[in-house]
TrEMBL record:
InterPro entries associated with the record: Glutamic_endopeptidase, Neprosin
Lineage: Eukaryota, Viridiplantae, Streptophyta, Embryophyta, Tracheophyta
Protein name in the entry: Neprosin PEP catalytic domain-containing protein
PROSITE patterns in the record: NEPROSIN_PEP_CD (PS52045)
Domain spans labelled Neprosin PEP catalytic: 1-179
Signal peptide (UniProt feature, chain positions): none
Domain of life: Eukaryota
Native species: Vigna unguiculata (Cowpea)
Length: 180
């Protein structure tokens, strides 16, 4: 399994890049970097492995810092984003990619979301900060899901599952012949 960061302006129709292929990201950590391999992964119905990822805007520089497991690994300089002194949308999710007319690999564990957090991939304890730097959990009216391959994968938002999970998104699926 790999962790990655993607930037795009049009859902990857003409723009978009991944990890260090995105110009402008400033790497600051010598041992942790975008695109690095994650050695431990969860097993369906078995041990769950979690990683902590956050993106936070520095109030002084306005740069967007990426943190992995509580350590800053680098930042996106504010100059990369036009008219964005703060974020007005936040996204969580997963993605697979294959050449045209080839089967898609599974997404996550290969299982569809079922509100059982030892089955499909998830992001938990979702929150974002407003312009006054107050944390908020997303409510249903602030959420929209995007699934361009519903025959192969799915995504579900759970507003508040409880103290351990909080607000969460669960996603994944078997992949297969999903179209281009």
């Amino acid at each position: 399994m790999w962790y990655l960061i993607a930037t795009q302006a049009d859902n990857f129709k003409k723009t978009g890049c991944y990890n260090l292929y995105c110009s402008g990201f400033v790497q600051t950590h010598k041992g942790k970097y975008l695109g690095a391999r994650i050695d431990k992964t969860s097993i369906y119905g078995g041990p769950t492995v979690e990683i902590a990822i956050s993106i936070t805007q520095d109030p002084q520089t306005q740069n967007w810092w990426l943190s992995y497991q509580g350590e800053n690994i680098g930042y996106f300089p504010i100059k990369l984003f036009s008219n964005m002194s703060s974020a007005d949308q936040v996204g969580w999710g997963g993605r697979t990619s294959t050449p045209p007319n080839t089967p898609s690999p599974q997404l996550g564990s290969g299982y569809l979301p079922d509100n059982n957090f030892v089955h499909a991939c998830y992001f938990r304890s979702l929150s974002f900060q407003d312009v006054s730097r107050q944390d908020h959990e997303p409510s249903y009216d602030e959420i929209f899901t995007l699934n361009d391959k519903p025959d192969c994968v799915d995504v579900k938002y759970y507003e508040d599952v409880g103290a351990e999970i909080g607000h969460a998104i669960q996603f994944g699926g078997p992949g297969g012949l999903c179209g281009n």
